[in-house]
Design a protein that fits this description.
With 129 residues, this protein is mainly α. The protein has one domain. The protein contains four helices and no strands. α2 (13-21) crosses α4 (87-119) and α3 (59-83) runs antiparallel to α4 (87-119). The longest helix has 33 residues, at 87-119. Pfam families: DUF983.
Length: 129
Amino acid sequence: MSDVQAHQEERELWPAVRRGFRRKCPNCGSGPLMKSYLKVRDTCTVCREDLSHHRADDGPAYLTILIVGHLMAPLLHVVFTTWRPDPLVLFTIFSIGCVTLSLYLLPRLKGAIVGFQWARLMHGFGAPG
């Protein structure tokens, strides 16, 4: 552990991840984390926490694909084997469901990853100043 991390206060992981998932500042939990759909603010508008250090990159997209795929694939199988709907109806319903769930999860998972990075003092979040 570096000297900087040794002198930092202990940050709780799960509250920070939950705040990030709610798209709130991982430090105070009340300031908005995002300034647009996927753009993270440089600083919190409430507590002035520096959020510019985040490096979410492709993580939220991978997690979104993983979650949506694991939810929708079994559901698609169950619906098809139980009711045998017309293929066009099945495609339409599941396409809308996949897009809706993906659009819902993507910014929330990005916030959760930023909260994780903040709690673990990654990428400069633990730097003094």
